[in-house]
Design brief:
Blueprint lengths: L8 H18 L5 H8 L4 H29 L3 H14 L9 H28 L6 H28 L5 H7 L1 H14 L29 H15 L5 H9 L7 H26 L1 H19 L5 H29 L5 H29 L2 H19 L15
Helix pairs in contact: 1-6, 1-8, 3-5, 3-14, 4-5, 4-8, 5-14, 6-11, 6-13, 9-14, 9-15, 11-12, 11-13, 12-13, 12-15, 14-15
C-alpha cells in the first residue's frame, strides 16, 4: 500500500493555528463554569444562557462571513480578523465582576469565531483533494484538541505550581492567542476554489445539488438532521459542572478536561480517515450512538472514577464525528458555494446552541441532572436514525467529487 500524501502547507498551518488558539481558549474554558458559579454566583440556568447566547451570536456571523468569502473570493482576511478579535477579547474575562460581564466578553470572543469559522473551513476544503477531506479536517481538529490538552495543563500549572489567582490565568491566555494570529498571517495562503482533480458536480439524480450554484436537497436534509442532534448537544460546561458535583476536586478539573481532549486529539485524524474509506454517514452515526450512551450514563454517574471514565469515552465521539461532519458539507456543496455552505452548517449548530443549553439548564435545575442528560441522549438517537435517510455519504471517497 502506498503512503498517504503529506498535508499541504495550509493544512499544517491551520492545525498549528488551531492548536495555539485553543491553548488560549482552553486555559479559560474549564475554569469558567466554576468561576461563574463559585465566584460570581451564577446558577446553572444562567450558565446555560451565557454559553448558548454566546454561540448563537456567532451563528449569524458564520453565515454572513461564509457568504462574503464566496462573493469576494478571498477568505484569509476574514480568518485573520476573526482570530485577532478573539485573541484580544478572551482574556478580558479576568476583569469580570458580574455574570453579565462574562456574557459580554464571551459574545465578543464568539463574534471573532463567527467571522473566521466558515471562511476557514472553506479555505481548508479548497486546500485538499476530495479523497483526503476527512483526514484533513480530522487533522485540523486534532490540532485544536491538542491545544485543548495543553491549555488546561497550563492553567493547572499556573494555579498549582505558580499559585496565581484564577483571574491572572485568564490574562496569561492572551499569549498563545496572539502567537496563533502571527502564524496565520505568515504561513496560510489563499487557495483556488476547486482542486485540480475535482470534477464538476453530478446531476440532480444523484440526490445532491442539481447545479454548481445550488446547495441541493441532500445538503438541506443533512442540516435538518444535524439540527435535531444539536438540540440535544448542550454546552460541555455542564459536563464540567457535573464533574464538580460528583466530587472531582477543583484543581483536577483542568486535568480531567485535558485528558478528555487528548482522547479527541488522538482519535480525530483516524476518525476522519475512516470516513474517507467507509463513508461519512456510518462514522457519524457511530459517533452519535456513542454520544447517546455516554450521556445516559453521565446523568447516573455517582463517583469521580466513573465520571472520569465516561469523560474519556466521550472524547471518542468527537474523534469520530468532527472531521466527518465537516467533510460531508464539502461533499454535498459545490466548490463555488462552500463558504455559504459552511455558513449554513455553522449557523445550524450555533442557532440551536441557545435552546439546547438553556433547556438543558432548566431541566437540570427543575428536574434533575439525570433527566437533562437523558433528553440529550434521546435526541442523539433520533438524529442517528434520521441520518440514514439522507442521500449520499455512505460510500468511500464521498460526495460529489469522484
Amino acid at each position: 500500500m502506498s503512503a498517504r500524501p503529506h498535508f499541504s502547507r495550509n493544512v499544517r498551518a491551520f492545525a498549528a493555528v488551531s492548536l495555539l488558539a485553543d491553548v488560549s481558549s482552553e486555559m479559560i474554558y474549564p475554569l469558567l463554569p466554576l468561576f461563574l458559579s463559585a465566584v460570581l454566583g451564577a446558577s446553572a440556568t444562567a450558565i446555560g444562557a451565557i454559553e448558548g447566547a454566546a454561540e448563537s451570536t456567532a451563528a449569524l456571523l458564520k453565515l454572513a462571513s461564509g457568504w462574503w468569502s464566496d462573493r469576494v473570493r478571498r477568505r484569509k482576511p476574514l480568518v485573520v480578523g476573526g482570530y485577532a478579535l478573539s485573541a484580544l477579547a478572551r482574556p478580558l474575562i479576568g476583569l469580570a465582576a458580574a455574570p453579565w460581564h462574562v456574557l459580554a466578553v464571551r459574545m465578543s470572543d464568539r463574534v471573532g469565531k463567527g467571522v473566521r469559522t466558515s471562511p476557514r473551513d472553506a479555505l481548508l476544503a479548497d486546500s485538499v483533494e476530495p479523497a483526503e477531506r476527512g483526514r484533513a479536517f480530522g487533522f485540523n481538529r486534532a490540532g485544536d484538541n491538542l491545544g485543548a490538552v495543553l491549555g488546561p495543563l497550563a492553567a493547572w500549572l499556573l494555579l498549582q505550581r505558580v499559585a496565581i489567582p484564577v483571574r491572572s490565568v485568564f490574562f496569561w491566555a492572551a499569549v498563545p492567542g496572539v502567537v496563533s494570529v502571527l502564524v496565520l498571517v505568515v504561513f496560510v495562503q489563499e487557495a483556488a476554489g476547486r482542486r485540480p482533480s475535482e470534477p464538476a458536480r453530478p446531476p440532480a439524480a444523484t440526490g445532491r445539488h442539481p447545479a454548481d450554484g445550488a446547495l441541493g436537497g441532500a445538503f438541506w436534509k443533512y442540516l435538518a438532521v444535524l439540527l435535531v442532534f444539536t438540540l440535544g448537544n448542550s454546552s460541555d460546561a455542564f459536563l464540567l459542572l457535573r464533574a464538580s458535583q460528583v466530587g472531582v476536586p477543583t484543581p483536577m478539573v483542568p486535568v480531567l478536561w485535558a485528558g478528555f481532549n487528548l482522547v479527541k486529539a488522538v482519535s480525530n485524524t483516524p476518525g476522519g480517515s475512516l470516513s474517507d474509506r467507509v463513508g461519512r454517514k456510518p462514522v457519524i452515526i457511530a459517533g452519535w450512538m456513542l454520544y447517546a450512551a455516554v450521556y445516559l450514563l453521565f446523568g447516573r454517574a455517582s463517583t469521580p472514577l466513573a465520571l472520569t471514565g465516561l469523560f474519556l469515552a466521550y472524547g471518542f465521539y468527537y474523534g469520530l464525528t468532527e472531521g466527518a461532519e465537516k467533510a460531508l458539507v464539502a461533499d454535498l456543496a459545490p466548490a463555488a458555494r462552500r463558504g455559504v455552505a459552511y455558513g449554513w452548517y455553522n449557523l445550524t449548530i450555533g442557532i440551536a446552541a441557545l435552546p439546547a443549553s438553556l433547556v438543558f439548564g432548566i431541566v437540570w435545575d427543575r428536574v434533575s441532572p439525570a433527566a437533562a442528560f437523558t433528553l440529550g441522549a434521546g435526541l442523539a438517537l433520533m438524529a442517528g436514525v434520521a441520518l440514514l435517510f439522507v442521500p449520499g455519504g455512505t460510500g468511500a471517497t464521498q460526495g460529489g467529487d469522484g
